[in-house]
Amino acid sequence: MQSETMPPPSRAHTAILLVSVLVVATCGLIYELLAGTLASYLLGDSVTQFSIVIGSYLFAMGVGSYVSRYVRRDEIGAFIRVEVLIAALGGWSAAGLFLLFPLVDDFRLVLYALVLAIGVLVGLEIPLLIRILRHRYPFRDLVSNVLTYDYVGALVASLLFPLVLVPRLGMIRTGMVFGVANVLVAIALTWVLKERRGRRLDLAMAFAVLASLLVGLSMADRLQQMSEVAFYGEGVIYAHSTSYQRIVLTRRASDLRLYLNGNLQFSSRDEYRYHEALVWPVLGRVMHPRNVLILGGGDGLAAREVLSDPEVAHVTLVDLDPEMTRLFRNNAELVALNRGSLSSPRISVINTDAFRWVRQARGPYDAVIADFPDPTAYSLGKLYTESFYRELARLLAPDGMMTVQSTSPLIAPRTYWTVATTLEAAGLKTRGYHVYVPSFGEWGYTLAAHYPPSDTVHLPPGLRFLDARAERLMFEFPRDMARRPTPVNRLDNQALVRSFDEEWAHYES
Description:
With 509 residues, the protein is of the alpha/beta class. Helix content is 57%, strand content 15%. The protein contains 19 helices and eleven strands. α2 packs antiparallel against α6 (107-133) and α3 (46-67) crosses α6.
């Protein structure tokens, strides 16, 4: 066989191959992280999607390793062509998935097919490299060197991806950049091995893929915009990936909309209904709401309502993402919407994880408003747990009151009433209420206090939606939204995330 009589690699050849191990390991993990992140971004339920993507990817790598035994000659040629194919598939993976998501009926089929294809190719790389390098090192040194570079590459990828690549490059550019890295490995090896048969064809393929990736890099913003216009069906006026989420603002006529990770957060046409219902049933039941805590609400819209109460002396707003609060503090159109609430001298904005912050915070607060996104993932579900609510109960003044955004009692009644059950397990008394918001449909909230929330409420004049009659009707639930037995949401069971996923998936199917 040709592979048995190959001359040993030269020193330059060996150095390129060892660097290749580092590069291909880094690239392989980046493609895996891209697929998992995109799956959770587009499909929700990050734990399920990451679990399936990682499991499928590792299985496919095992298949690739097994298939490598059938490459019986020209291992270097095979490795070069594998690198070119990975560069093409992996480099264009994020752009392709974004563009295909609104166009295909079964996106999961496309996603997992791509994951399997890339995984098989990545699984071929290391066995081929070991066989190519076997003439240069003793076996124990060979395995040690290859695996060391492989694991170092994995570490590099795992650190770069969340800290640098996604927030600075975005997912489409990240895929393209590492596709370029893969194809440069192929070009370097092909260039060094001047006497190898098929060299010209391999170089032509590699340069064609490289050219396509460079074009893709130059058009990354346009590709992202095209995919998001198709996804949202509206003009995208702002889009930015932070370390925590994808922030997108769209406009259709006079309607300005905010999406976080693809989920609608508000529409400027009807957000006043949501935020008046969120804030005033709490403030209207507290005698003197001097000190108010807002958790979430980085758009400043809940703060706008709170600060319109002249009795409020100070607001503490805790939101995870500094890019979110910076955007809604500095953009003139958004500042007009929240009336400059985030720049008020009466507010302190703290950008940190609310789950950690409440543990070291000190009260008391006369009113607490929890305006978190829906529990679409375990990272959000922890903000709806008994342990979290016990900390909020500690911060709440004896005669204070809090409210929690609690998703739709019509679409997800088990999820909605789980919030009340969990607040009660934390020692609080609750009352549920709901309001119709055209952008969301029926939407629910939960009042909670150390004492049973009363019917008496004092509302200010001049609200656009809420008055005494509308407020009273919000506490009435028809049969299809009535209370039902639900579990307590704890850190160790995350019952809320599972029920949310099940109920919304059933509604959207």
